Amino acid sequence: MEQEHIQISNPILQLKDVSISYSPGKNAVKNVSADIARNKITAIMGPSGCGKSTLLRAINRMHELYPDIKIMGEILLDGKNILKMNPMEVRRMAGMVFQRPNPFPTMSIFDNVVAGYKLNGISLGKSEKEEIVERCLTNVGLWNEVKDSLFKKGTFLSGGQQQRLCIARALALKPDVLLMDEPTSALDPIATNRIEELLLDLKNEFSIVIVTHNMSQAARISDYSMFMYLGELVEYDTTQTMFTNPKDKRTNEYLSGQFG
Amino acid sequence: MSSLRYRTIKDKIFFYCVCGLSSLTVIPLFAIIWELIRKGYKQINWSFFTETAPSTLDAMLARGTGDIIPGGIANGILGTLLMVAIASVIAIPVGIMVGIHLSEHPKTKFSNATRFITDLIQGSPSIVIGIIAYAWVVKPLGGYSAFAGSVSLAIMMIPLIVRSTEETLKMLPGSLKEAGLALGSSYTNVILRVLLPSAFGGLFTGILLAVSRVMGETAPLMLTALGSTAINWNVMEPTSAVPLLIWEFYNDPNLIDMIWSSSLFLLILVLSLNLIAKHIAKKWKIQ
Ligand SMILES: Nc1ncnc2c1ncn2[C@@H]1O[C@H](COP(=O)(O)OP(=O)(O)OP(=O)(O)O)[C@@H](O)[C@H]1O
Ligand SMILES: [Mg+2]
Questions:
Q1: Which terminus of chain A has a lower count of CB atoms within 10 Å, N or C?
Q2: pTM given for the model
Q3: Do B178 and A65 touch (CB under 8 A)?
């Protein structure tokens, strides 16, 4: 069934009738169609288990690691079908930040930031690397905290710092889209606040899709919001409209805290 | 109240039983070490490491005058190191690659078959592996050699390395692989630059344990390396090894005193490898 959602012009991402199943006959995501805006923050909300992570991970072809997962429909990234692109290219264009910070444990903070280049076999000069590390760490507000310990292991940082390091690592590759799966759910309010401010800064350069459980977070930072329920995209609108004047009864119930 | 006291007493009795029994198991170990040190320490000097074993005649003369037996086991030490090194060169890459395959594709038919065969090899008596290496290497090459010995040791090392690699890689969190791939890395690069370095401690421990396991092997070497009284650097020639020498000393009444020093040396070597392996395993534990 095709719902009528908000129209976005010149979208960075287009989801066309996307369905995803972990096992045959049971769709975790059902017929989701939506266009996602460039240089905006789009939040995906919904109760636990409604398929938010599943949908997000389809965008950078993360599901291909697990052969049982089947995806139907089409996803266009900057107008190109992601299945017609090289998966490595897709993943470089659509950077991902995971729910739990996952810096590479054997690498220093410095090496973590430029890990994307190293892993892609791109060799950079020393000054180039230093420039990228300083810029990206400054971007995520970590530079002043770690500039004297760049060669310590990334895993020595606090959880919030590690998550910002992971964001820096994703930013370093200059992706077009940043996919974030509950990036602040493991963090305290102060660290959360810093990351939210960071995202507001970053949207000038990147398009951001963020999954969040936290409705006030979505209200604070996002321009557009999606509400998913049992695998369906129930409602997709500007965040303002969604929070002030939701069209669907289920959205209204969720936003007013009646379930979730 | 009385039942509490009863339980306390029961606890105490149990505790002393455990202490008593565990010290009982430790006693033989200390007894062995003590015996080896007592009988072997005199023999361990500079020439022990630099000279080959004396002839029966020389040993008999020394015994006659009450001196320690002259000479040493340099041929055996060198042979052991040489063969273990070559065996490692063969077994480490093979073992690690197979281990990677098993952890990346755990459920395929091929993996199950591989796992079954590794278990089979690991459970085979070492003399059988010696016979296989004899048939595969000694026969075709037309003679006993250090190389043939290395092949038999490598066959014994591979299953150990495969298993430790598989176990270590399986313990790595899946998020690590996802993090690498999400940066657009190729699969190969994720394995080489993310997974293997993160698993380094476990892999290294597994390798050290495999090395220490084969270092004391005697039976397969009898059928492959044969032994040699001279120091030998040529891998295509028969070569000695410390455990082979111990066996030879044991069979020669004049040289029999050498078994204590040689065994002490072998035991210390193997124990230290084990201790280093444990230490590394602890230090590199995955967070
Ligand atoms: N690896 C998996 N294998 C099988 N089913 C899965 C798997 N991961 C998720 N599912 C199922 O797919 C559905 C959607 O899961 P998903 O993780 O996308 O939800 P979510 O909206 O991200 O939830 P949360 O807010 O708790 O993270 C759930 O019903 C879940 O049970
Ligand atoms: Mg989720």
A1: N
A2: 0.85
A3: yes
